[in-house]
Amino acid sequence: MKNGILVALTVVLMTGTALLFESCGKSQPSAPPNSEVGLVFDVGGRGDKSFNDQAYRGLQMAKDSLGIKYQYIEPGGGSDRESALRQLASRKSIGLIFGVGFIFTDDITDVAKAFPDKKFACIDYTYDSTKAVPKNLIPIEFRENEGSFLVGAIAGLMTKTDKVGFVGGMESPLIRKFQAGYEAGVKYVNPKCKVLVAYAGVTGEAFKNPAKGKELALSQYSQGADIIYHAAGVTGLGVFEAAREMKKYAIGVDMDQWNEAPGRVLTSMVKKGDVAVYDIIKEWKEGKFDGGTPRVFGLRDNGVDFVYDNNNKPLIPEKVYQRVEQLRKDIIDGKIKVPTQ
After folding, report:
1. Residues whose CB falls within 8 Å of the CB of residue 9, separated by 6 or more in sequence, listed in order
2. Are residues 27 and 72 in the same domain?
């Protein structure tokens, strides 16, 4: 274990699938009711170097700063989300439960209704304004299209071939938001640039297939793309492999992914999932939990951004950076409307 002593480890078989349960910080039967936080990871789990790790970082921030204790579950194969949520909600010590990923939307809504005395939050919740959200559930959304627009602009300004790529994980409304923003950013600064698009699949498994990610990226690089942006979770690690082999560039997602291919990661579009998790835990601990309506994080809220630091500054010319910073301002000021589809 990276953090602390392993206190409890339980393997539960549900519908033929193994659930891994771990408690961080010493959790005892005498823990006060509703005093701990629970979290269920999605496909890829901890170590995906993407949005699951972002959520875990938020838990660690809350542990270090707020003194909270937490427990988490990694559903085996990602097919038993509802069972995992119910397992955590049934524990007297847990008062707030997170689901990580849009695939949780229906399950966490149902479980929130079944446990009205508990609080819930879902990262990348698919919000439908025609359906009521339980008052004990906070849907967390990000304007991924805005951050994707900025990295798309970087790609459009820096391509040497006027051809760039996009590799998505599961083809879905959420990942199409990344694609739409990226394409819009590319075309805004370079109308003649072509964007190649490919998805790894149509189920959650598409987020954990690096071999497929590499195959799709190699195909796009061989067609002339010199920069590829991925929104594919663990599958995206294959994109970085391809970038290294082909000596081309890739753009990371969710977290700063420079270390996956140093010198070949032009930038990363980061989502502040850790900040969202931390903020909601803090509000919950302070008795300010306000559910029923989406919490949205965009450029204006510093909820999405792109990486520009000492690692990748040598790759991005100053004039490109300044142009993209102006685009950021124009989006925040409402001068540029970034599409979602």
Report:
1. 20, 21, 22
2. yes
